[in-house]
Amino acid sequence: MHRIPVTLPGGRALTLSPGGQNVLIRQMVDDFCGYFTPGGQVLYVGDADAKWAFFEQAALADLGVIVDQHGKMPDLVVYLPDKNWLVLMEAAPSHGPVDAKRHRELAELFARSTAGLVYVSCFPSRAEMRKYLPDIAWETDVWCADNPTHLIHFDGERFLGPYED
Q: Within 10 A of 81 (CB to CB), how many other CB atoms are there?
């Protein structure tokens, strides 16, 4: 089978299985990271077949995040060292967007993080996003691959940044 090549910021290459949300995950790495997280370090990439395709366990542990292999990780985790943010990104068509329930799950999973948490639901298109609009949690961001230079912010006082509890 043909695997999907992905080059992480910093140049490390990996491949993802050809199914599921992996085409969107490649766009998230290539486009979202290029526009919105320059200088960011990818710490986790999920794969439709092999959940833990790329996992920087020690780097996450340095930020206070300890997860086991049964944790419900987001599809992509990017650390922005200059802002001390962890950007938690979901490829929404596979399991849905960051809704209120998923927001709580991720907040619990990353509760000990010393970095601020940013939640982003990612879609291949705005047409796909429209199916999920009623479910998207407040104080999160939405990115659509068909408009890669734009973000949609759902309320709150911040745009692409963590909220204090």
A: 11
Instruction: Count up the domains in the chain and report the number.
Output: 1
Q: What angle do CA 33, 151, 99 make, to 5 degrees?
A: 95
Q: What is the mean pLDDT of the chain?
A: 89
- CATH code: domain of residue 149: 3.40.1350.80
DSSP string, 61-100: HHTT----TTS---SEEEEETTTTEEEEEEEHHHH----H
Read off the amino acid at residue 98. V
Residue 45, C-beta contacts closer than 8 angstroms, at least 6 positions apart? 6, 8, 14, 16, 25, 29, 53, 54, 55, 75, 76
Tell me the pLDDT tens digit for each residue of 18-68. 877 888 999 999 999 999 999 999 999 988 676 667 888 999 999 999 987
